[in-house]
Design brief:
Layout: E1 7-11, H1 16-27, E2 31-36, H2 43-49, E3 54-58, H3 64-78, E4 83-86, H4 101-129, E5 132-137, H5 141-144, H6 150-170, E6 175-182, H7 188-191, H8 195-203, H9 213-224, E7 235-238
Parallel strand pairs: 1-2, 1-4, 2-3, 4-5, 5-6, 6-7
Helix pairs in contact: 1-9, 3-4, 4-6
Family: Belongs to the short-chain dehydrogenases/reductases (SDR) family.
Pfam families: adh_short_C2
Catalytic activity: a (3R)-hydroxyacyl-[ACP] + NADP(+) = a 3-oxoacyl-[ACP] + NADPH + H(+)
Length: 244
C-alpha cells in the first residue's frame, strides 16, 4: 500500500492510461479524484468497489477559462492533493500544411495549457504544505517529433518544458515534478490501426511488443510514491526501447 493515506487528482481518468493509473492508485491505498470529459459507463460500480475512495469530476479541459475554478473547487473539497497526474490529452492529426489553426490550438489548449493551469493551481497548495508529486504525461513524440502530428508534438514538447521549469521552481519547497513519455501504447486509437501497420511499428521496438496502459501506470506509481523521493525534473520514456 505505497500510497496509503494519499490524495490524488488524475485527469483523463475515464479510459486507457488514465483509468489504469486510477485503478493502480486505488489498489495502493490512495483516495482518487478522477477527472474526465465523459463519465465511464461503470462509474458507480467502480465507486462502490473502491469503498468511496473514488470521486468523479466531469469537466472539459478544452474550456481553459473554466479549468482553474473547477480545480480550485475540488482542491478545497479534498483538503489538498498529495499527487497530481496530468494525463488528459487529445489528438487532431493532419499534415502540417493541411492542419487548421483551430485544430492546432485545440490540441495545445487541452494537452499543454490545461496541464499548466492545473499544475499551477495544485502546485501552489503543495508548496504551501511543502510536499507533493506532480506527474505530467508527455510523449516520445514530444522528443522526436512525428509526421502528421505537429500540434501533438508541440504540445508534448511544451509539457516537457513546463515540467522541467516547475521542477526547478518547486524543489526547494519539497515538491517534485516529473514527466512520463509513453511510446506505442495499446488504446482505442491503436485498436483501429491495421495489423500490418502494427507489425511495422513493433519491428521498431526492441522489446517487440506494444505497451499496455499498466506499463505506464507502474512508472507513474513509482514517481508518485516515496520510492522516487530524490527524483525531480526527469522525463521517463516508457517505450519499449523504441528510441534508444
Amino acid at each position: 500500500m505505497r500510497l496509503e493515506g494519499k490524495k490524488a487528482l488524475v485527469t483523463g481518468a475515464s479510459r486507457g492510461i488514465g483509468r489504469a493509473i486510477t485503478d493502480r492508485f486505488l489498489a495502493e491505498g490512495a483516495e482518487v479524484w478522477g477527472l474526465g470529459t465523459r463519465e465511464p459507463g461503470d462509474l458507480q460500480d467502480r465507486i462502490a468497489a473502491s469503498g468511496g475512495k473514488l470521486h468523479w469530476i466531469s469537466a472539459d479541459l478544452g474550456k481553459v477559462q473554466e479549468v482553474e475554478a473547477i480545480v480550485e473547487g475540488e482542491l478545497k473539497k479534498a483538503g489538498g492533493f498529495d499527487i497530481l497526474v496530468n494525463n488528459a490529452g487529445i489528438t487532431k492529426d493532419n499534415l502540417s500544411f493541411r492542419m487548421s489553426l483551430e485544430d492546432f490550438q485545440k490540441v495545445l489548449d487541452v494537452n499543454l495549457t490545461a496541464t499548466f493551469i492545473i499544475a499551477r493551481t495544485v502546485g501552489r497548495d503543495m508548496i504551501r504544505r511543502r510536499s507533493g508529486s506532480i506527474i505530467n504525461m508527455a510523449s516520445v513524440v514530444g522528443i522526436h517529433g512525428n509526421g502528421g502530428q505537429a500540434n501533438y508534438a508541440a504540445s508534448k514538447a511544451g509539457v516537457i518544458g513546463v515540467t522541467k521549469s516547475l521542477a526547478r521552481e518547486t524543489a526547494s519547497r519539497g515538491v517534485r515534478v516529473n514527466a512520463i513519455a509513453p511510446g506505442f501504447i495499446a488504446s482505442d486509437m491503436t485498436d483501429a490501426v491495421s495489423e500490418e501497420a502494427k507489425g511495422k511499428m513493433i519491428d521498431q521496438i526492441p522489446l517487440k511488443r506494444i505497451g499496455q496502459p499498466d506499463d505506464v501506470a507502474e512508472a507513474v506509481l513509482f514517481l508518485a510514491s516515496d520510492a522516487s523521493a530524490y527524483i525531480t525534473g526527469q522525463v521517463i520514456a516508457v517505450d519499449g526501447g523504441m528510441f534508444i
